[in-house]
Amino acid sequence: MLCELLRRDTANPKHLARRDSAPTATTMINIRSKTALPNHIARSPFNTIFTNLCCLGFTASTYSMKSTDQKMVCDVTGTQAYDSTAKCLNTCTLVLGLLLIIMFEFLF
């Protein structure tokens, strides 16, 4: 919603050129997006540093950064697509890393 308002204001600068002699009152309204866009950028560095099995943690970090970039551009579908991939990669990395640690504990 906020992105649409920004695009509309920059696309039509006629309201900036109009100058009235009377002062105008302005009101700021904060509009929150209806769709919550989660971000898995906090889990990705953890998986990259501690359980980076087959570079899945690094790949998850990359997708998390792409998700953040798409959020800044206001691309909701791109954000959700990259974020779901990052979530899946983070989960797989964590599960495989924990299984590897448990397996080594039982073998040695």
TrEMBL record:
InterPro entries: CD225/Dispanin_fam, IFITM_antiviral_protein. It comes from the Eukaryota. It is found in: Membrane. The keyword Signal does not apply. One of its GO terms (biological process) is type I interferon-mediated signaling pathway. The chain crosses the membrane at residues 88-107. One of its GO terms (cellular component) is plasma membrane. Keywords: Membrane, Transmembrane, Transmembrane helix. Belongs to the CD225/Dispanin family. This is Uncharacterized protein.
